[in-house]
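Issue 218. Parser rejects a valid record. Input:
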Amino acid sequence: MAELKIDAVVFDVLGTLVDEPAGLRAGIRALTPSPDAAGTERLLLLWQRHIEREQRRVLDGDRPYATGDLLDREAAGLVAEAAGVGDPAAVEALARSARRLPPWPDTVAGLARIAGRFPLIGLSNASRTALLGLNAHAGLRWHQALSAEDARTYKPDPAVYRLAVTVAGAPPERLLMVAAHAWDLRGAQALGLRTAYVARPVGDPPTPSDRFDLYAEDLADLAGRLGVR
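Output the parser choked on:
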């Protein structure tokens, strides 16, 4: 394969750079007294399904735009109700757990390595406030972090990827979108960005019909494929 000619690397955050389920599980365990593993997973699924459903409703025009912070509070309320917890402070603490997600073991070193060669742009469906918390908690390094909130929609709406194109000041084909979610990469691809899939345990794997520019086992592998020493 010919060497990719890119001017900047755009990274998805949730699931790609941070372990979102692990952080939410920690919040759920703090909410309820000694929940068993099955109970924790049931509540985690309730959260995830709410976020996915409501973002889809926004994308489909069935719901006016709502920030990620609001969706997190709604999800926390549903989880708390299912767990039999009515304390508003506990619900708010659970909602904020979406801002305290641990990085994958290779994330911090991998970002630093790639940042030595390319400008890095974070592009997330998380709100501006949540993204600030995520960056600080996980120690993520960016040259620019962008929230879908600025486009008042969610990925994979083209308007979100266009934020990165505008900030980079380069044609879409000169940007490389990195994600652990094939649906995210398809959205970037539709706008003309180059794409790199990074395997994560919680991601959305490519299908046989997907054709991305790069496939990497982790960020160290990605750096090597980008020619970063």
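Fixed in the parser; the record now loads. The chain has a mean pLDDT of 95.
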